[in-house]
Design brief:
By secondary structure, this protein is of the alpha/beta class. It has 12 helices and 11 strands. The protein starts with 16 loop residues before the first strand and ends with a helix.
Amino acid sequence: MNSSANLVHSLIPKNSEIVRIEFAERSYNIHIGVSLLDDADIFQHLPKASIAVIVSNTTIAPIYAKRLQTTLQGRYKTIHTIVLPDGEAYKTWQTLNLIFDDLLKYSCDRKTTLFALGGGVVGDMTGFAAASYMRGVPFVQVPTTLLAQVDSSVGGKTGINHPLGKNMVGAFYQPHLVLCDLSTLSTLPARELSAGLAEVIKYGPIADMVFFDWIEANIDALLARDPATLAHAVKRCCEIKASVVGQDEREAGLRAILNFGHTFGHAIEAGLGYGAWLHGEAVGCGMVMAAQLSQRIGLVDTAFVARLTALIQKAGIPTVAPALAVGAKANADRYLELMHVDKKAEAGEIKFILINQPGQCLVQTAADELVREVIAACS
């Protein structure tokens, strides 16, 4: 996990880069390349079914749903498309039920295959629907955002938000395939691209500082959406995540390192209201806060914190923590209250993913006084 692959990639359809994620009989491929939405051969090993259902949203469906449907036509007798409202604010029970309503209306059976065409919200909800409908049907991740391609589409975490906490209701359920078509990133808004870069940057401090060096050297090319540079970033991130998740599918230990920045970040999202900040923006700011906490505990020096902060800023991601105070409640009290609801909290204690040394991290608690200092310093 501490070596970075050479920047040599073929971006020709039917010759995509492949990262394998190992789960014994549930192993699957992550395909990375350009124009893969048009490559029917990628889907040839999926379970046979008469019905396929594409789940997308109001932003992505008008751009890419028809292309995917055309590619799938030779494989499925019937293809339906479900279009959901777009945004983190709609990652709810009500929206999830829209998927179930249509699956039942279309008389979908246990062999029906769902295709999640969109960003992390679509992927998480489609995966949860696949895990739940008739107690489990096949599904495929087709992520169209950088954040989803490097993180949320890989590893089988699915779910929805609760007003009191992010992703608090869900299931571990692996897809049969992940298809990362880099050409979909050409229509990604600049803010969404930057948000995705937060999850790219994350992999350096937790696992591979050679990759972190590479990101620093190539951040301008990433922001410019250079295809070869994006291909390398997506592949390396998927390699690291596949290695971690393959060892710890259900986050019993090692997988928690992938949540670097997320304890603070999830508090920001819940405190501001889902959708006010993009997930990657909250995680990026959360990484700065987690690095600050690591430094105050004595794990890393101020130079590393400054270096990480500078890269996150250059990627176009906010590094100043927003105020979450409600009424008479102090800002730090509100952050701590929200973090106590986070999935990583155990026995009333907040678990933080901290940088033990650049390229390695650990999970541990921290004194509330230190957390308050970090919130004040970053606000």
